[in-house]
Amino acid sequence: MSLQVFLQAQISGIEEFLAAQSAERKDDVADLMGRCAWQTLACEVLPRALLAELKLSPMLLGSSSSEQFLLVLAEEDVPRANEFLTRAAQEIAKISGNTLRLVWASTENLGAWPVARKRLDDELLAKTVAPLATSAGDVASIFAPFLSAAPETRDSYFETFAEGLPIARKVGWSSEHPARLVWDSGVYSWTLKEQAGVEDEGILFPRRFALDENGSHPSPLRELAKRGNGAHKWGVLRGDVDHFDVQLRRVNSIEEHIHLSVLFKDFFAGELSLLCTLPDFWRKVSILYRGGEDFAVIGTWDALVPLARELQRLFEKFVEQNTVMFPNLEARSISMGMAIAPDAASPAGAVFQDAGVQLQAAKAGEVGGFRLFGRTLEWKRLADAEELKSSLMRLVRDFRFSPDYVQDLASVYRESFSARGQRRGKAVKIDKPWRTFMRLSTVVPQGRGKELNNVRNAVITNLVGKKTAGLKLRPSGRVGLEWARLAAGNEK
To answer: Is the N or the C terminus of the chain less surrounded, counting Cβ atoms within 10 Å?
Structure first.
């Protein structure tokens, strides 16, 4: 009886890969969408193709996501699997301009799963940080992709791959080009499923795009920006489950590992796809990718904030429902970061990268926050920012205040926060509260009518709180001001 072996593979360098973009395509999101689609599908297709090449059952695929996969093989199949993955790794490096690296590790199914998992992690880490030390003398194979990379191939493949993205029914693979996925062809192909739980061997890959006026292709960024209310801007929203990797390392069995991986992957594929069909989002938001514990979307600036809030609410309910099944579940919160393009012609890759920076800033301190408009808020404080935004917009639209006064209010924050260098998400105590209060009162003067003054008082309260003797500028107030500034972008 042959020994059972776990084989785990992962792709590193994804952040640099997705952010890379040719300067010739600044106005086009096709290249980014092609990269994201390829990245989402690569670790789904490769393990299935490997099993098909080895004439093994698809049931041996344990888990797969946008960055890694886990297989169960027999010991005698490992050499052929290594050969398959070596060829795939060389072409992955080639088509990605040497930004991506496929590494893998294998270990015998001996001892408890946490022990086997640690052996896999240690070997993967060694190959990631010191590839020459683990190359078994095959140094030439490590440098081969660098010597053979063709820039013209890298520049065209992902944009071409994006062309078939909205209408493809299957994704295919061929041994001649083991990293070049194709639509509706190939030696082996798999159906693209729209919903989880469908009883077939397809790949869960729901697609949601804000289509152009012809309804045939994703909207160009300039057209997408014009659909936003207020300022005509677009942006990228990215999110990531907090401490998910820690939870995976702590599960006690391979069955729990697989179940937890599939559970979170199905959540993002299902809930995010459903949200993007709702009236508030379907013409404004396109899904870039959804992974095992993270996601990215691109859309009009005004749709991204409510989408983030709704997805966070659904995530909280999802965790509550599964706490019974996983009582020690640590992945209880999700962090998000949003970046808005400076102008409609900004490179999509650069804005995507900026959204990643914002996401890391949100996770740098206390987890479970939302980084937007240069501030990190706890999720429960987002409602305060929205209330302030709504009050400010009432002053503009109902009471004919000039939109310029929002800039005057924002200057109070710029001076106080920059002068004190406050940490993220912290209120700023004011040395001379009465001076600040009088300044706010001057910018938003009293008027005639009880309703107007009620709205005015609500604005000031949202900015500094109710205790006038110890005023503090709230971070949620700064977010609300920026939110209102963009919402009033087209007001006269």
So the answer is: N
Mutual angle of helices 382-397 and 475-487, in 10-degree steps: 40
Q: What is the pLDDT of residues 131-168, one digit of tens each?
A: 655 444 455 545 554 444 444 334 589 999 999 999 99
Question: In whole angstroms, what is the distance from residue 122 CA to residue 248 CA?
Answer: 15
CA nearest to 311, candidates 392, 395, 240, 225: 240
Letter for the amino acid at 342?
Answer: P
Phi-psi region of 368 (alpha: psi -120 to 50; beta: other; left: phi over 0): left
Strands 170-174 and 177-183, sheet pairing: antiparallel
CA distance 375 to 465: 18
Cα 84 to Cα 5, 104, 226, 300, 416: the distances in Å are 16, 11, 47, 42, 59
Among 29-38, 144-153, 322-331, 394-403, the range of highest mean pLDDT: 29-38
Q: How far is CA 443 from CA 403, 411, 456, in A?
A: 11, 11, 10
- For residues 50-67, b (16+ Cβ closer than 10 Å) or e, as one string? bbebbebeeebbbbbbbb
CA distance 234 to 222: 8
Angstrom CA distances, 459 to 260, 279, 429, 440, 449, stand at 44, 30, 18, 9, 16
